[in-house]
Amino acid sequence: MTDATVITRDDQGEAGFGDYFALLKPRVMSLVVFTALVGLLVAPAPVHPVVAVASILFIALGAGASGALNMWWDADIDAVMQRTARRPVPAGRVAAQEALAIGLALSGLAVVMLALAANLLAAGLLAFTIFFYAVVYTMWLKRSTPQNIVIGGAAGAFPPMIGWAVATGGVSAESVLMFALIFMWTPPHFWALALFMKSDYHAARVPMLTVTHGRRATRRHILAYTALLVLVSLGLGVTQIGGPVYLTLALLLNALFLRGVWTLWRRNEAAAEADGYRAEKRVFRFSLSYLFLHFGALLAEATLRSFGVGGW
Amino acid sequence: MAIKAEHELHKRRFSRNLGVGLALAGFVALMFALSVVKINSVGPVQGFDHAVRPELSEAAK
Fold it and tell me: Is the pLDDT of residue B43 over 70?
C-alpha cells in the first residue's frame, strides 16, 4: 500500500476565531464597554434594558472595528515592537487586507445599527470616533507628532458621551466632563508606559515624547496633565451625576495619583534605572485603577440616587 | 506522512465557523428582541384590516 503524503499548505489565512477576535482589541473594548455603560446608566433618562444592551454592543463593535483598522495600518510598526509583534496581522495569521475589510464592514454595521437601536446623534458620535481613531490618530498623528496620544486620546474618551447620547439624545456638561476625564487621563497613562518602554517606541520610530523631547520633558508633561486631570475629576463631582461618594473617592484617588506623579517628576533617569522603573510602573498600573474607580463611583452614585440617597 | 483525519488547521477552521455561526445567531436574537421592544414602545396599533371599525373613523376621533 502506498503511503500518501499530505503537503501541508502555508497556514497564512487560516486564522481561528480567536485571531479575528484579537483584531478587535478586546482589552480596549472592555474599557469602552464599561465607560459607555456608565455614561448610559448615569444619564437622567431611562433606557429599555434591551435597547441598552444592543447599544452597548454596537458601541463595542464600533470600537473593535476601529481597532481592526488600526492593526491593518500599523502592521509594519507592530511587527517591530515587542509588545505588539504577536498581534494577528504582524504574526501572519490574518492578512492585512482581511483586517481592513473586517474593520470597514464592522464600522458600517455598528454605526447603522446604533442609529436604528438608539438615535442618530449617538450613531454620529460613534462614526466620528471610528474616523478619529483610524484616520486622525492612526494614519496621521501617531507617526508625525509627539502629541499623538494627547489628541488621539479623544477617540478613547468618546464612549461615555455616546452612552449618554443613547439615553438622552443629547450632549450636556456632564457628558463633556466624562469625555474630559478620559481625555486628560490618557497622556499621563501612556507617557508613564513610554518611560519604561522607550526602546520599543524608538525601534518603531514612533515619535513618542520620550523619544523626541527626552524623559525629563515627559516627566514635566505628565505632571502638567495630571494637574488638569485633577481639576476635571473634582469638577465632575459637583455636577448632577456627582455626589459625596464620588467626591470623597475622587479626592483620595487624586491625592494618590498626584503623589505618584510627583515622585516621577522629582526622579532622574539614574534613580529610575537603578530600581527598574518601579515608580513609573506603579503609576501606570495605578492609572488603570484610577479611571476604573472614577467611573465605578459615578455608577455607585446613580445606584444610590435610584434609592433616593445619592447625589447632592 | 500518513493522512490524519484531524489536523490543527481543521480545528482552526472549526473554531472560525463555530464563532461566526454563534455571532450570527446572537445577532438574529438581538434583532428580534430589539424589534419586539421597538414595536411595543409605540403602544397598541390599529389599522384597516377589512373589518368595519367605527372607532377608526375621523368622526370618532
Answer: yes
The pTM is what? 0.88
Q: Is B5 on the interface with A (CB under 8 A)?
A: no
Tens digit of each residue's pLDDT (9 = 90 or more) over A31-76: 999 999 999 999 999 999 999 999 999 999 999 999 999 999 999 9
Whether A12 shows a pLDDT value over 60: the answer reads no
* Contact assessment for residue A89 and residue A78, using Cβ atoms and an 8 Å cutoff: yes
- Cβ of A50 within 8 Å of Cβ of B16? The answer is no
* Contact check, Cβ <8 Å, A11/B37: no
DSSP assignment, residue B60?
G
DSSP state of A270: H
> What whole-number distance in Å separates Cα of residue A236 and Cα of residue A238?
6
* B4 Cβ neighbours under 8 A, 6+ residues apart: A6
Average pLDDT, stretch A114-130? 98
Which residues, 6+ apart, have CB-to-CB distance to A245 below 8 Å? A297, A300, A301, A304, A310
The C-alpha atoms of residue A183 and residue A129 are separated, in whole angstroms, by 13
With CB atoms and an 8 Å threshold, state whether A57 touches B30.
yes
How many C-beta atoms lie closer than 10 Å to residue A214's C-beta? 13
Q: Cell 495630571, residue? A: A226
Q: Is B30's CB within 8 Å of A53's CB?
A: yes
Question: Chain A contact for B24, CB < 8 A?
Answer: no
Query: Pick from A165, A175, A135: which is nearest to A152 by CA?
Result: A135
Out of A4, A11, A17, closest to residue B19 by CB: A17
**B34 reaches A (C-beta below 8 A):** yes
